Amino acid sequence: MGRKEQILQAIDGKYPGYIPVIPVANTFAAKWSGKPMGAVMGNPQLYAQAMIDCRKHFDYDGLWVNGVGGITAALGQGMTDKFGKKSTNGESVILTRESLNQLHDFKAARDLKPDGMIKAVRMMKEQDPDQPIFTVVSSPASTAAVMMDVGNFYVSMIKDPEFVKDVIRRITEPIVESVKMIADAGVDVIWNPMPTLSGTCISKKLYEEICRESNIYFNEQVRKCGLRLVAHACGKWDDRFDLLFQEGNDGIHVSECNFPEVCQKYGDKVCLMGDIPSVPVMLLGTAEEVYKTAFDNCMAAVPHGTFILSPDCGMPPNVPYENVEAMCKAAKDAADKYESKRSY
Ligand SMILES: [Zn+2]
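Above: inputs. Below: predicted complex with zinc ion.
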């Protein structure tokens, strides 16, 4: 069995015989390539080469492509934003019910340009074929927060929850269409970051009343496309992990949680990913600190179920190389120790 199959198997809940290490390494790999960040991010070939070469150099797993951006722009370009300006990106344009009616019609094939993504995926499949490809897609509820402006999104949740639900409904199919495009391009895993829906920002009650139904629907649609889905529980989710674990995610990438407790409660239900603090440990810690945190994460998680070691959020571009090496070594050592202790 190849690496890719092993990792997808881990996401599906079967121990793959080792502990995959998959940092969200887009900007890290771009910087590592030594070329100007803007040039790499704007060029699918340079970008894919950076992802492939950096992954091979450190021998972690997973490749990241930029998905089909521009959904918010396709829907809301030209509308007046909260600063009274004509919007170019569709952010902060749905401020009232009236503005909801001004959103443009959407056809993914016409409005999104998947060429860059398709080029990057093709290069990755040629040069690094035994690795799963990940991309970032925000759920309709998270996208609604961006298009409504987060402040307005939160206030409306309390004053006019039906308005928020209507916005989410209106933008759901465009996002699902873009997911189909991503699946057709050959991406394997969708990574859905949800910082704005966390306990850091809204109550569990509001999450349940307004976001939950649409998250369940979105997750179903992603999996219908044959893609695996990893939700990134960014921020505080301790009070609502129970909901998240029921919503049809294949994996949950945690942060800011009591990790051993989460492993005990949910480790057998879903593939867990995390949980090295990205900034205090990965970026600012010593290699020894990274190693210890990473090793402890693995040992806490693996007895309960499948686990992917990763920083608890995107890996910052300036992370010292020895810290990345320490993270990878910890996963190998932990897997050896786990194997030696296993009685079967
Ligand atoms: Zn995060």
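Residues 161-185 form the longest helix (25 residues).
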